[in-house]
Amino acid sequence: MLFYLLQSGTVPPEIIEKASKISVDTLAIKTVRLLESAQEGNSQEVVSSLTHSAISFGLKVLAALVIYALGAWLISIIRKLLKKHFERRKTEATLASFLYSFITICMWVILVVLTVSTLGVNTSSLAALLAAGGMAIGMALSGTVQNFAGGLMLLIFKPFKVGDFIEAQGYSGTVMELTIVSTKLKSIDNRLIILPNGALSNGNITNITAHPLRRVDLKLGLSYGTDAAKAKEALLEIVTSNPLFLNAENKGAQDPFVAVQLLDSSSVNFIVRAWVKATDYWEAYFWLNETVYTQLPEKYGINFPYPQLDVHIKDR
Q1: What is the pTM of this model?
Q2: Which residue range is the domain that position 226 belongs to?
Q3: N or C: which end of the chain has fewer CB within 10 A?
Q4: Beta pairing partners, 87
Q5: How confident is the model over 34-70, as pLDDT tens digits?
């Protein structure tokens, strides 16, 4: 209607001006009100969205804590069951300790991954991140990876087992445990020695208790002029008087052996060799030393020489 009146030219200019002002003011007011209502609506949506997100994240954190606690409880139960299973099946202690350590670490890794994924973290992204940092971590932990590989080699080729007495890397002791990265020894004086598997698998290992029998070797020097046959007879008599020393009737052993080994500068050196059980080695060795020292001079009249040097002076 207004457009028609304007077209016809019958509306006075003053009315047109006032009408235009009223229309502009009304439009501005409505626009402001619409903006205010829109802003109020957005803030409510933001608050509602934040509240929903907080509740959702809180539920995820709660679920992650529950999963972690439940997983830790299950891991402790599985570890106990593993120990009982190994004991019931009489699994070799070396293999049992290695598998126990390996399975425990794997279970903890799985539990951490499940806990992180419950929080909503994309595990594929996490895997990509781990893969990206794998090279750097691998270089930093190259020694650990080498020790792990060494543990596998020791487990496969079995140069020793738990309970064996070994010498390696300048140390000696009884093997107490073989883990995925190290081997634990208990020394004779009750010290705990931890050797990395990498160096252990690549080095020399002497397994002293690998076989049931061992040979006791005793070297001693007697004075020049000693009757060799009498000395050999006396030493054989001393050895055979102790039942710890074995003879050829025992499987894997030989009869005691005595011989002249070396004509040294101040003595005639004899060698005594006799076989004993590996568990009786040290007892037999120390007994033989003490008995030879006490009985040869007193019972057989055979003396030990002192280091001496003969000096001949000629008059000119």
Answers
A1: 0.57
A2: 213-299
A3: C
A4: none
A5: 445 545 555 566 566 667 777 777 777 888 888 888 8
